[in-house]
Specification:
This protein is mostly helical. Helix content is about 40%, strand content about 0%. It is elongated.
């Protein structure tokens, strides 16, 4: 006959295992009543629960911590172009009055909006336009179709500043 395997040694019970977990001991209405009236630390000690467990429960119920201003549960991002229309029609002074923003923030937002100009979506090419491509210069066809012309490369050599001596003036 085989011997049965030895039983595992008893688990050590420390302070961590003495806490009441929400899984084993669901929150009661009486326990919920303490939240928001006492500090989280006091509630945790009184109910023998972890501090993080008490905080999580309080936030889940939407209660404010004692001695703190109410905080939103989640920060909502403002849509990207929520104010874009205002920036087109209003002055900085009007924007400051409407939005309550500082001049620096308004100027920064103006720069952001100016830098991210989106090109208008062009309609699909028609068969007629497709057949005419290559028969005339692109800029002529672009004007005829009412489309933006081809972009020109603007790579030019850097100009020397007055008073600077370049290779063209000779070396000493």
């Amino acid at each position: 006959m085989k011997n049965s395997p030895p039983s595992p040694p008893p688990r050590k019970t420390g302070k961590a295992s003495a806490f009441r977990s929400a899984r084993q001991f669901p929150w009661t209405k009486e326990e919920d009543a303490f939240l928001g009236k006492l500090t989280d630390r006091d509630v945790a000690e009184k109910l023998n629960r972890t501090l993080s467990g008490v905080r999580d429960r309080r936030k889940f119920l939407g209660k404010v911590a004692v001695g703190h201003a109410p905080q939103p549960f989640r920060m909502e991002r403002e849509p990207r172009d929520r104010y874009a229309r205002l920036f087109v029609t209003k002055s900085n002074q009007e924007l400051r009055a409407i939005l309550g923003w500082s001049y620096k923030r308004i100027l920064t937002r103006r720069r952001q909006l100016a830098g991210s100009k989106v090109r208008k979506q062009q309609p699909e090419w028609t068969l007629e336009e497709d057949h005419l491509l290559g028969t005339k210069p692109d800029h002529v066809l672009a004007r005829k179709f009412g489309r933006p012309g081809p972009r020109r490369a603007t790579a030019s050599p850097p100009k020397a500043h007055p008073g600077e001596k370049g290779l063209a003036s000779g070396r000493r």
